[in-house]
């Protein structure tokens, strides 16, 4: 897949790393606001989790990686992103490519450090059944493992075209069920200690949250 010749994401010559990445995120916001807003919340959640874990030295790169994690969705059609029905094989293929697409964009922009690898691996699973490479356990970069938890949590706590949101307690139970299979147990445990913060952060979503209980 050569992404760089796609005219929709090519801003022209002479752009360097940070403005280029910022420009692409602006394009993502224009393409699909819900995905952009999700990226912002995943980064905010990641900040809380990484601070609680005490990994200050990785804090900025993890926040950046989480903000950029779904950049590759700039290539996914709105029909697929907003679909409420079962996705076709072709649509799933588009979805499964987005970590690689985001990684390639960041590599092209010359973004240094760990951030591109967090984007590339944010859909890996602890048990090795994730994508794109099926890495397992600590083979998965720590920032990508944290992003996977933050990503899943935000997806559960916000309303989606294909699913209603959960309340914080329901989402934490769901995370716990998948700790040690999908997610890093230590990170999940840390999130449990942040439940008060989660209630505060998602307070504005209570209207949607309550809809699941009707
Ligand atoms: Fe993703």
Keyword list:
214 residues, mainly alpha, disordered N terminus, disordered C terminus, HD domain-containing protein, HD/PDEase_dom, HD_GYP_dom, HDIG_dom
List the ligand species. Answer: fe (ii) ion
Please give the radius of gyration in angstroms.
17 Å
Quote the average pLDDT. 87
By CATH, the superfamily comes out as Hypothetical protein af1432
Oligomer: single chain
- Basic shape: globular
The DSSP helix count reads: 11
Structural class: mainly alpha
Quickly name the level 1 CATH class.
Mainly Alpha
Percent helix, as a range, is 55-70%
Q: Please describe the biggest sheet, giving its number of strands, its sense, and whether it closes into a barrel.
A: none
InterPro entries: HD/PDEase_dom, HD_GYP_dom, HDIG_dom
Pfam families: HD_5
Protein name: HD domain-containing protein
Organism: Paenibacillus roseus
Written account of the structure:
- The chain has 214 residues and is mainly alpha-helical.
- It has a single domain, classed as Hypothetical protein af1432 (Orthogonal Bundle).
- Helix content is 58%, strand content 0%.
- The chain has 11 helices and no strands.
- α2 packs antiparallel against α3 and α3 packs across α7.
- The longest helix has 21 residues.
- It is globular, with a radius of gyration of 17 Å.
- The chain starts with 16 loop residues before the first helix and ends with a helix.
- It binds fe (ii) ion.
